[in-house]
Design brief:
about 110 residues, mainly alpha, two-stranded antiparallel ribbon, about 65% helix, about 5% strand, disordered C terminus, signal, EF_Hand_1_Ca_BS, EF-hand-dom_pair, calcium
Length: about 110
Amino acid sequence: MKCFILYVAIVCITWLGVESHLLLHEVLRRSQDSGGVLAVMMQYADSDKDRLLSGEEIENFYRYFINLAPGEALMTARQFIRDGDLNNDARLNETELRNALKKYSYTHGR
């Protein structure tokens, strides 16, 4: 389900023209594994460009890009922080985000 939601988000991002210079197939190709998901999340969720994702940035990503309901987006963000925050600073760096993403099945069993 989470994989489906992510793919829907990528399609929506493309259709909304957030990154209109990328063709749809290129966006989907880049996001075929957790590394691609990580790149998409770091690019679109990191609003202050500090290379760290706060719970609020993750929540906003899932609320506005994935279109989850506010409560679902909040719960998703909290789960990401719980699953990935190794240094307990309530933010995820790329390594922590990668580790959190590995807990989810984005690769369809590859």
